Amino acid sequence: VILHQHPPGPTIPGFLPNSLKLETYLRMVKIPYENFYESKLGSSKEKVPFIEYQGDKVQDTNFCIKYLNKKFNVDPDAHLSAEQKAMCHAIQAMAEENTYWSLAYYRWVDNYQETKKYYSNLAPVYKDLRPKLDQNKCIKCMQAHGIGKHTKEEIYAIAEEDLRAMSALLGEKEFFMDSEPCTLDCTMFGLLACFVYGTEESPQNKLIREELKNLADFCDRMKLNYWLDW
């Protein structure tokens, strides 16, 4: 399997939550893979991450995981009940369709000058242009989503409410559903690790480190289980 994604960030191997989600899944189910670091130009939908396998190209991490489950006859959710699978679906939707946008806001609006450093290895002509284009695209997406119409304080309040809900859902369990990890844990690790390891000055990081320590412990646990080469 070839995993196409952006190059790693300075403190995190997957700059995007979905990249880290998909790569963690591949490690969890022990599917051999290789990383191919690139821009968005390699994908017909202009969206990374995506995978290639035996001539097939699959975009969107959820479709990638379904495809790989079938191709390799694996299912990290096989041990879950129907109710647990429904809960996973709802929690994933909250993380990817709501909480994620507070990360995007922090990176592309509130902390843009730091985010620009991620592009420092580009050719001089692209070093300023590319991050500005990506920033403009992200701001447009936030406006279309609706979260971009809120104030900074409101966006971080939304994130806090989500993170507190995630902490309550995790509780004292090792993983979000039980003592055995599942696909949801890859999703949650992808997002939460970006806060814990990738945005150390963010309000979300401070909240997790100071009050929602079980989320930080969860990230450390996933990192220990699947990312010894971090």
UniProtKB/TrEMBL annotation:
The segment(s) forming the Metaxin glutathione S-transferase domain are 159-222
Q: Could you tell me which Gene3D superfamilies the record lists for this protein? A: 1.20.1050.10, Glutaredoxin
**What InterPro entries does its record include?**
FAX/IsoI-like, Glutathione-S-Trfase_C_sf, Glutathione_S-Trfase, Metaxin_GST, Mito_Protein_Transport_Metaxin, Thioredoxin-like_fold, Thioredoxin-like_sf
What residue stretches are annotated with the Thioredoxin-like fold domain?
A: 17-111
Task: Give a Gene Ontology cellular component term annotated to this protein.
Answer: cytoplasm
| Pfam families, A to Z | GST_C_6, GST_N_4
Report the family membership. Belongs to the FAX family.
Question: What is the name of the protein in this document?
Answer: Failed axon connections homolog
Source lineage? Eukaryota, Metazoa, Cnidaria, Anthozoa, Hexacorallia
